[in-house]
Amino acid sequence: MWVTVAIVVVLIALIWRYTGRPKGLPPGPTCYPIIGNVGLFKPSEAIQAHRKLRKKYGDIYTIMTFHKPMIAVHGYDNIRELLVKHGDLFSDRPLTIMNGVFNKGKGLIWSSGPLWKEQRTFALTTMRKFGFGKRCLQNQIMEEVDCLMEELEKYGNKPFDIQNTLNISVSNVICSMLFGNRFDYEDARFKHLIVLLNKLFATSSPSSPAMPSYWNKKWHEKILHLQMSSSKSA
């Protein structure tokens, strides 16, 4: 019996050591073994919860998502200190599920460090050839603004969801710059592409740094495959 108790105590100590809050980090709410602070608050109540945590622990505190620490920083001076004065140290993107599943940490959006700088330089150089930063692009934007205003006038004083309309408007500017062509606001194929983009960003929501980045990648790929298959069948 004592051997069993000793083994249990050792296991609990090991679990606490390797899944608890590491030493040297800012204070934070009580960290439980394995789960950390998961379930501390609902995603829909995140803003209110962080306000309470800020009052209790100050402008800088630590939240553990399983064994991964996430440090929350509040206050203009603190954020400026991190992102402006020490931007080279804190500007990298966190390692997330979607980052690894979709593009292996590459590409303009999800890349980080030297690769991001290289991709950004290439993108800006290429976009300038298409009119980015020049007056011709301003003309394209103003033309699309006129089309947007005409589209909004169709609704009169009736309330409506403006999100899809704005998405089409912004996408039209990009299409005009890259392809030399824009699409009508009622174009069925173009509207379908916008819907697919919205679904893509919705599916990418687990990229939050608060999500456990060590989830089984193969299982997540299977889930994404099922989601895409169901979208195609629908």
From TrEMBL:
Superkingdom, taxonomy of origin: Eukaryota
Matches recorded under Gene3D superfamilies: Cytochrome P450
Lineage, top ranks: Eukaryota, Metazoa, Spiralia, Lophotrochozoa, Mollusca
Annotated organism of origin: Magallana gigas
Name of this protein: Uncharacterized protein
Keywords assigned: Iron, Metal-binding, Signal
Signal peptide span: 1-20
Family: Belongs to the cytochrome P450 family.
One term of GO molecular function: iron ion binding
Biological process terms in GO annotation: organic acid metabolic process; xenobiotic metabolic process
A GO cellular component annotation in the UniProt record: cytoplasm
